[in-house]
Design a protein that fits this description.
With 137 residues, this protein is mostly helical. It folds into two domains: 18-96, Four Helix Bundle (Hemerythrin (Met), subunit A), CATH 1.20.120.910; 99-137, no CATH class. It is built from four helices and no strands. It has helices at 20-50, 57-93, 108-113, 121-135. Helix 1 (20-50) packs antiparallel against helix 2. The relative contact order is 0.12.
Amino acid sequence: MATKLPKNYSPSTDEKFMNAKQKEFFRVKLNDWKAEIHKESRETVENLQDSNSPADISDRATQESEKALELRTRDRQRKLIGKIDEAISRIDNGTYGYCEVTGEPIGLARLEARPVTTLSIEAQELHERSEKLHSND
């Protein structure tokens, strides 16, 4: 059963980390984000179906560039939906909010800014430094 959130609830560090209210807060946030992405995707499909080709070749080229950019954006968002679904699964199995490397709490501010994150700031920085070192090989 879902926990009822108080109006204007916001997670606080004064509470027990990943209590029922916090889990429900992030579940709602993730589901809302997912719904927004689906809505934008439907709008993109409608726009692509409705568009007529302009007669002017430069206008047509601009329109094709805009379509390509829109499709790349939708592809990134499609991948993001997978991450959102994974985050919701972590809420369900009790691992949401904990770093997959250290097992430590990720932190509410970071989770609010990036609700699909799986790494604490420290683990993310270490990961980025490691990637940077290996990219120079």
